[in-house]
Amino acid sequence: MQVLNVGAQSGSGAKRFRLLAAAILLAAALAGIGLAVVSRARGFTLADAEAFIGARLPAEARDVMHATRDQFGRVVWLRFALPPDADLSDFRMAMGLVTALRDGFNPFPAANYTEADLTWWTPHTAQASAGLHAVHAGKVYELLLDRSGPAALVVYLRVYSL
């Protein structure tokens, strides 16, 4: 008569399963770290910013500036100029923002000390503007159309994850 040590067999199977699970978790963690390092090494590109906001910038956009931080959650700042007769409707709708810009509304009424190193980020200086504040797809969108200058419109967009 052969006696099987069932406890030993199932224990060794459970041990193999735990080792396999630990190896998979370690591999996933190392892959995540690797992706983060590669992302930081190559920098956050304009294409990355467009992917994050959910839309490509208008074709006529020029003097484009962008920045990001991801200390507590991703934040993206974009500023670009457009011809004075440009319409932002298609760009706004591409981001999923159905709310129209409100004349005289500035979602950035005062300088923010955390943005002081972004010397090109000056939406609080707009004299004539329209703007919006919206929450869509788990992100906050703050958009300002600065109409102060006669030669160009300046768009300021800050988007951050909730």
Q: Would you give an account of this structure?
A:
- It is a single chain.
- By secondary structure, the chain is an alpha+beta fold.
- It has 2 domains: 1-43; 46-161, no CATH class.
- 31% of the residues lie in helices and 27% in strands.
- The chain has a 6-stranded antiparallel sheet, with helices on one face.
- It is elongated.
Strand order of the largest sheet: 1-2-6-5-4-3
Number of strand elements? 6
Radius of gyration: 25 Å
Main beta-sheet annotation = 6 strands, antiparallel
Backbone shape: elongated
Q: Supply the number of helical segments.
A: 3
Helix content: 25-40%
Overall residue-averaged pLDDT value = 84
N- to C-terminal distance: 66 Å
Question: Outline of this structure?
Answer:
The chain is of the alpha+beta class and 162 residues long. The chain is 31% helix and 27% strand.
How are the SSEs ordered, and which strands pair?
Blueprint: H1 6-42, H2 46-53, E1 62-69, E2 75-82, H3 89-94, E3 102-103, E4 129-136, E5 139-146, E6 153-161
Antiparallel strand pairs: 1-2, 2-6, 3-4, 4-5, 5-6
List keywords for this structure.
162 residues; alpha+beta; 2 domains; six-stranded antiparallel beta sheet; elongated; disordered N terminus
